[in-house]
Design goal:
Elements: E1 5-8, H1 15-25, H2 29-37, H3 43-51, H4 66-78, E2 82-86, H5 91-106, E3 110-114, H6 127-135, E4 138-144, H7 151-159, E5 163-167, E6 181-183, H8 199-213, H9 218-235, H10 242-255, H11 261-269, H12 279-296, H13 300-307, H14 311-345, E7 353-357, H15 365-376, E8 380-386, E9 389-395, H16 402-408, E10 415-418, E11 422-428, H17 432-447, E12 455-458, E13 460-461, H18 469-476, E14 490-503, E15 509-515, E16 520-525, E17 540-552, E18 555-566
C-alpha cells in the first residue's frame, strides 16, 4: 500500500472568514469553504458559479478575426465553393469536426472533412494531405483543434490557390500562420477574454458567429450542438470555469434527450441510456469509445458516427467502436504487463522509467504511461519502435516538468511537444539508451531533497455527522466538476471498519462498510483492492473521499468514493 500525502486546500483559510463568506451568500460553511478554495470570492463570481447562465457566454465577435472568418465562409457557402474541415484524431478534434460539419451542411455548404491518420501522418496539418485536398477541389480549408503552428502548410495552401481559416486553442509560437483568419483564445493580441476554450469550443464560436450573421436563432443553435461541445470539452480536460462550465452544464442536461443519433447509440451501447449523467460518466464511458477510433484505426469512423442521421446505422457504428475499445483495453493490458516486467528487470533504482518495445501499439502507450506514472509516482516514458524509429508518449509527476526535461534532450529527439505533465516525441531507436540515462540524470536533480509520494488534495475535514444524503445533493449543485473545479474531496476520522472485501474483476476494487458509532457508511475504492490485506474489521481508520449519490432500482443512496485510507 503506497503512502500518500494529504494536502489540505483549506489550511490557509480562517474559520471566521469562511463563516462570514457563507453568511453573506447564504451558503453552508462547507460550500463556502469549497468556493474559497477555488478562488471564487467576488459577488459576481459566486452568482455566475451557481447560475451557469448563457449570459456568461462571450460574443464570438470578441475574437478579432471572427468578422473576416464569417465573411469568408458566407462567401464560400453562397458560391458553393468546396469547404474542407481539417480536424484532429482525439475526442476534442472529432467533436469539433462534427459540430462544424453538421452546421455548415445545415446552411447549404458544400463541405467535407478530413482527419489525418494518427500513425501514418501524425498530429496536425501536413502538406501531402493539403495538396490532395486542393487538387480534389478544396477552395477553403478550416482547421479545428490544430493549425496554430502550421506556418509552412498555410503558405503552401496559398500558393495552390486555397484559403485557410485556423481555429485552434493550443499555445502559439512566435510566428502566427498568415491565414485569412486565425481564431485562437491564446493568441498574444486576443481580445476574447477567456483563454480556456477547448478546440471544439473555438469551432463552436465560429458556428455561433456565422449564425448571428445569417440571422439564425443563436440560442437554438447553442442548444442544438451543446451536447457535442460538452463531450469534447470534458474529454480535453480544460478548466471547467467560466463559459466552459456553462457549455458543459447545458450540454450534459441535453444528453439525456439528445436528438443526435450517434450520441444516442453511444449512450445505449455504454449502458447509460435513461440514466442521470455527469461529466465523469461522459469522460469514462463516451470519450474512450470515440477515442478508440483514432487510437486503433481511423478517427473518421467516430466523426461519421456523430454526423449519422439514421439511428440503426449509428448503432452499428457505435457497436463497432465499442468492440474497438474492448480491443484497445486488451492491448493496453498486454502492454502494461510487459512494461511491468521491464521495470522489474532494472538492476538499479530508476528516477524515471524509459520503456520500449517493437511490439507496442503507438496509439495505446500513452494510456499505459499514465497508469504506470500514477502507480509508481515516477515519470514514465513508453516508446513504440518500428524500423529503427520510435514514437514515444510520456507522463510525469508535479516534481518534474516533462516538457523542460525533453528540451534538455532535444539534440537526440526528432521532434517533441506537450506540456509539464504529458508529452510525446520521436526518437531513433539507437538513441533510446542515451535518452534513458540523460532523463534519469535530469529527474534525479529535480527530486533531490524531496519526498516522492503522491498527494491527495483535500478541501477540508468533515465531521461524520455532516456526511448525509442531503449534503450530497447540495454538493451536486456545484457540478459540473472537472479541471480547476475538481470533485470535492473530504477527510473524516474515527471510522470503524465493519466489512472489508474486494469486488469487481480481478478483485480490483475495495468495498468497505464503516461506522462512526451512530451511522453506517458505504465506501467504494476503485482500483484500491490491493489494500484489502492491510485493513482489518474492527480497526479505526481515517478516510479521504468524495461524497456521491448511488442510484439503484430507483432509490438514492449515499456512497463514499474512497481516495485513501489511513490507519
Amino acid at each position: 500500500m503506497q503512502s500518500k500525502i494529504w494536502e489540505y486546500k483549506s489550511r490557509h483559510l480562517n474559520k471566521d472568514d469562511i463563516t462570514a463568506f457563507g453568511n453573506k451568500h447564504g451558503l453552508p460553511p462547507v460550500v463556502a469553504c469549497l468556493l474559497l478554495n477555488r478562488g471564487i470570492t467576488e459577488d459576481a463570481e459566486v452568482s455566475a458559479y451557481f447560475r451557469k447562465s448563457l449570459a456568461a457566454i462571450n460574443s464570438p465577435f470578441n475574437f478579432e478575426d471572427m468578422e473576416v472568418a464569417v465573411a469568408r465562409i458566407k462567401k464560400a457557402v453562397d458560391s458553393h465553393e468546396k469547404i474542407i474541415i481539417y480536424g484532429d484524431y482525439d475526442v476534442d478534434g472529432i467533436t469539433a469536426t462534427a459540430v462544424l460539419y453538421k452546421f455548415l451542411k445545415s446552411v447549404g455548404a458544400d463541405v467535407e472533412f478530413y482527419i489525418p491518420d494518427r500513425h501514418k501522418e501524425g498530429y496536425g496539418l501536413n502538406i501531402p494531405a493539403i495538396n490532395r485536398l486542393i487538387k480534389n477541389g478544396a477552395k477553403l480549408i478550416i482547421s479545428v483543434d490544430c493549425g496554430i503552428t502550421s506556418v509552412g502548410e498555410v503558405e503552401f495552401a496559398k500558393t495552390m490557390g486555397a484559403d485557410f481559416i485556423i481555429t485552434d486553442h493550443h499555445t502559439c509560437k512566435e510566428e502566427i500562420p498568415r491565414a485569412v483568419a486565425v481564431i485562437n483564445p491564446k493568441k498574444p493580441d486576443t481580445t476574447y477574454g477567456f483563454e480556456f476554450l477547448a478546440g471544439v469550443g473555438v469551432a463552436f464560436k465560429l458556428v455561433l458567429g456565422i449564425s448571428i450573421k445569417m440571422e439564425l436563432d443563436t440560442k437554438n443553435i447553442f442548444m442544438e450542438y451543446a451536447d457535442l461541445v460538452a463531450i469534447g470539452t470534458i474529454a480535453d480536460v480544460v478548466p471547467l470555469l467560466g463559459e466552459n462550465r456553462v457549455i458543459v452544464e447545458k450540454g450534459i442536461a441535453k444528453l439525456s434527450q439528445t436528438k443526435n443519433c450517434g450520441i444516442k447509440a453511444l449512450l445505449s451501447i455504454s449502458g447509460l441510456g435513461g440514466k442521470t449523467l455527469d461529466a465523469q460518466s461522459v469522460a469514462f464511458a463516451i470519450s474512450p469509445r470515440l477515442n478508440a477510433a483514432g487510437r486503433m484505426e481511423s478517427a473518421e469512423t467516430a466523426v461519421r458516427l456523430l454526423i449519422e442521421e439514421d439511428y440503426d446505422e449509428a448503432l452499428k457504428i457505435a457497436t463497432y467502436l465499442d468492440n474497438l475499445n474492448k480491443k484497445r483495453q486488451e492491448i493496453e493490458q498486454e502492454i502494461y504487463k510487459e512494461a511491468l516486467k521491464q521495470i522489474e528487470s532494472f538492476d538499479t533504482q530508476q528516477s524515471a522509467y524509459v520503456l520500449w518495445s517493437e511490439n507496442w501499439h503507438s496509439g495505446v502507450i500513452g494510456i499505459v504511461a499514465s497508469k504506470l506514472c500514477e502507480q509508481f509516482y515516477r515519470p514514465c516514458i513508453l516508446i513504440s519502435c518500428q524500423n529503427g524509429k520510435g514514437k514515444a508518449s510520456g507522463r510525469s509527476i508535479e516534481e518534474m516538468n516533462l516538457f523542460s526535461a525533453l528540451s534538455e534532450c532535444d539534440d537526440i529527439l526528432s521532434e517533441f511537444g506537450g506540456h509539464s505533465q504529458a508529452a510525446g516525441f520521436g526518437i531513433n531507436q539507437s538513441n533510446i539508451e542515451e535518452f534513458r540515462v540523460r532523463l534519469n540524470q535530469y529527474a534525479k536533480k529535480c527530486f533531490e531533497g524531496k519526498t516522492l509520494l503522491p498527494k491527495i488534495y483535500i478541501d477540508c475535514p468533515l465531521a461524520t455527522s455532516d456526511i448525509t444524503l442531503n449534503a450530497a445533493k447540495i454538493l451536486s449543485k456545484l457540478e459540473p466538476f472537472g479541471m480547476s473545479n475538481e470533485t470535492p474531496v473530504f477527510s473524516s476520522k474515527g471510522m470503524r471498519l465493519i466489512t472489508v472485501r474486494t469486488i469487481g474483476a480481478d478483485n480490483r476494487h475495495l468495498k468497505l462498510y464503516m461506522s462512526d458509532g451512530k451511522n453506517t457508511f458505504n465506501g467504494i475504492g476503485f482500483n484500491m483492492g490491493n489494500m484489502v490485506g492491510e485493513l482489518k474489521c474492527g480497526e479505526t481508520v481515517s478516510i479521504a473521499y468524495n461524497i456521491s449519490i448511488n442510484e439503484y432500482n430507483g432509490a438514492e443512496n449515499l456512497q463514499l468514493v474512497l481516495k485513501d485510507v489511513k490507519m
